[in-house]
Amino acid sequence: MTPPSADPEDLRRIVRDSLGVGLATGTYGVSFGAVSVASGLDVLQTCALSLLMFTGASQFALVGVLASGGAPFSGALTALLLGTRNTLYGLRLAGLLGWTGPRRLGAAHLVIDESTAMSVTRRTREGARTGFLTTGVSIFVLWNLFTMVGAVAGTAIGDLRTYGLDAAVGAAFLALLWPRLQQRRNLVVALLAAVVALGAVPVTAAGVPVLVAGGVALLAGLLLRQRSTA
Q1: Which residues contact 112 (CB under 8 A, 6 or more apart)?
Q2: Domain of 200?
Q3: What is the value of pTM for the model shown?
Q4: Average model confidence (pLDDT) for the chain?
Q5: Residue 3 included in any domain
Q6: Confidence check: pLDDT of 177 > 90
Q7: DSSP of 139-197, one letter per residue?
């Protein structure tokens, strides 16, 4: 059976909405550029992270661990842990978008929260592809552009901790997390993870409490899944 075609007006609406999401999200890259430089990375390293990693939560996690004095390995593990959700997104998108070969490989780099959200709600494959590509490409271009702007600006004004801007790492994490705390279950898990992380601070190296908190969230997810399938 031939899949239904998307209505041209629907496609225009998808493009408009996706560009709006891309603009709002991409410009936030200036914050990452600034806090990354404040954490000790140079402009080239900061830009390379946005170009090659391209997943905001993981990027902020990495520089957050470095800013607190943690080892790069701990930062990388924390970023990897947060990035595992993109693998789950990819499993859902593979069948929905229907790309194979080099196109699937290229699309994999654009799998983030926003591009996934703007594609999985579409009624047609054409609409899903339009939402995915428009959102993913616009965010990728703007995120990298504004990362460079933030990094150069941070270098020009010197040590951002002088202005108290090192707190932007925590503020950025809270901004990323806040929309997901509307459900009571997520709020309880987040609070429990925070308590465990605070308890680990005095007895572990910098960066490890974040990993421990992530382990709490993973354990909670497994237990809740078992409960729902029981």
Answers
A1: 54, 55, 56, 86, 89, 136, 139
A2: 182-230
A3: 0.71
A4: 82
A5: no
A6: no
A7: HHHHHHHHHHHHHHHHHHT--GGGGTGGGHHHHHHHHHHGGGGSSHHHHHHHHHHHHHH
